[in-house]
Write a structure and sequence with these properties.
Elements (H helix, E strand, L loop, with lengths): L1 E5 L25 H10 L2 E8 L1 H4 L5 H17 L6 E5 L15 H9 L8 E4 L2 H9 L3 E5 L4 H7 L7 E3 L2 H10 L7
Parallel strand pairs: 1-2, 1-4, 2-3, 4-5, 5-6
Helix pairs in contact: 1-7
Bound molecules: magnesium ion (MG) and zinc ion.
Subcellular location: Cytoplasm
Catalytic activity: D-glycero-beta-D-manno-heptose 1,7-bisphosphate + H2O = D-glycero-beta-D-manno-heptose 1-phosphate + phosphate
InterPro entries: HAD-like_sf (IPR036412), HAD-SF_hydro_IIIA (IPR006549), HAD_sf (IPR023214), Heptose_bisP_phosphatase (IPR004446), Histidinol-phos (IPR006543)
């Protein structure tokens, strides 16, 4: 099975320093959903792993998160893209849960739900903690320079073997060029 793991805010949709906390505030980055469609067409399952501590902090509730994700699914559908699953951590930063990135808990759950070894799986994010969670779970960390990505590149020490691309569209070019066509 071919699978790719995406962060949400700053990768698929515009990020906000004040949290994306309503469906109205969820806005796709141009080209991101089309990039997902290209992966779907190449046989990839596309799975999102996103920290959503705004829930734990009381900034928005589960109904609102669901509404954001419905909007994302609909926008994806409109360009022929499909997001196969969304894993989220709803906990506040100080909760010490196992799922909040940089911990690899969500990645481990993805591995077990899809019964897949994450070795060689590309995990694309814009923050250091996305890359750290990917590396800790054995996936290949990929930084995109949308969202917080430029800041991450300029100010953080990236995990060894992190790949860097301008945007999800360019990261997907690399993923598709570096995946054997015959692999299932
Ligand atoms: Mg992000
Ligand atoms: Zn959590």
């Amino acid at each position: 099975m071919k699978l790719v793991i995406l962060d949400r805010d700053g990768v698929i949709n515009y990020d906000s320093d004040h949290f994306v906390k309503s469906a109205a505030e969820w806005k796709a980055i141009p080209g991101s959903l089309e990039a997902i469609a290209r992966m779907n067409q190449a046989g990839f399952k596309v799975v999102v792993a996103t920290n959503q501590s705004g829930i734990g902090r009381g900034l928005f509730d589960m109904d609102t998160l669901n509404a954001m994700h419905e909007k994302m699914h609909r926008a994806a559908q409109a360009v022929g893209a499909r997001i196969d699953a969304i894993f989220y951590c709803p906990h506040a930063a100080d909760s010490n849960c196992e799922c909040r990135k940089p911990k690899p808990g969500m990645f481990r759950r993805i591995a077990s739900c899809f019964n897949i070894d994450l070795h060689g799986v590309f995990a694309i994010g814009d923050s250091l903690r996305d890359l750290q969670a990917a590396a800790a779970a054995g996936a290949t960390p990929v930084l995109v320079l949308t969202g917080k990505g430029q800041d991450t590149r300029d100010n953080e020490t990236l995990p060894e073997s992190t790949l860097v691309f301008d945007s999800l569209a360019h990261a997907v070019d690399h993923v598709l060029a570096n995946t054997p066509r015959t692999s299932k």
